[in-house]
Write a structure and sequence with these properties.
mainly alpha, 109 residues, 7 helices, globular
């Protein structure tokens, strides 16, 4: 059986990044700056925007709220290190039925 963090890295983290990138783009942040903030390439941001990455539907309303607040904080310059914020979203994932759904679909592989 896979560890929870391993499943989250494969099935949840890309969609967190996608949603965060989309929220930052709506706030007027340029793609290059979004890539720098998220620690990925501008090409990755483009792939998120085109739904070539991060298409997973494993999310909850509570996770979406955390992602929105994280985007607000990044855009306002209140935080520069996003790692704790993303870890907080993953922590929410672990406490919801989302993780259980991932285990049902992928956990035994």
């Amino acid at each position: 059986m896979k560890m929870p963090c391993e499943l989250i890295v494969w099935y949840v983290l890309p969609s967190i990044r996608r949603d965060l990138a989309a929220a930052l783009k709506k706030k007027g942040m340029p793609q290059k700056e979004i890539a720098e903030k998220l620690g990925v390439t501008p090409a990755a941001i483009s792939q998120y925007a085109k739904a070539k990455r991060g298409r997973s539907k494993f999310k909850s309303a509570e996770m979406e709220k955390h992602i929105g607040r994280l985007a607000d904080d990044i855009a306002a310059g209140r935080i520069t290190d996003i790692q704790p914020g993303i870890c907080a979203v993953c922590g929410v994932c672990k406490k919801t039925p989302v993780l259980e759904s991932i285990y049902e679909k992928y956990g035994g592989r």
